[in-house]
Specification:
Number of domains: 1
Strand order of the largest sheet: 1-2
Strand content: 15-25%
Order of helices and strands: EEHH
Largest sheet: 2 strands, antiparallel
Oligomer: single chain
Distance between the termini: 52 Å
Number of helices: 2
Number of strands: 2
Length: 102
């Protein structure tokens, strides 16, 4: 944690189990929202698919979120690589347009 002075203790419920956490106070809303997303997605799997066991529903929710995160990370990396290539190309164009000093 960045600042131990801003650390708070909270409890979040995921899949009918309560988890005590120590987090930075600034992260509380995000952590609570994440727990709600997990619970909502697990409920979706239980209601819309033949997933009866809560543990299986939580595993499917975790798999979906991890897949989304990895896809977003890969897209970001690809975008960063392409942006870097474009900047290098622009730099070469600028360099070739400027008269040589010296």
């Amino acid at each position: 944690m960045e600042d131990a002075g801003n650390e708070i203790s909270i409890k979040v419920t995921i899949g009918d189990r309560q988890y005590p956490l120590k987090i930075n106070a600034a992260e509380e809303e995000i952590v609570r929202s994440a727990a709600k997303l997990i619970n909502d997605k697990a409920k979706f799997y239980q209601e819309n698919f033949s997933v009866k066991d809560k543990q299986d529903a939580l595993a499917m929710a975790s798999l979906e979120f991890a897949t989304e995160m990895l896809s977003a990370t890969q897209a970001k990396t690809s975008w960063q690589d392409e942006t870097g290539n474009q900047i290098e190309h622009l730099q070469r164009l600028i360099d070739s347009a400027l008269p040589n000093a010296g």
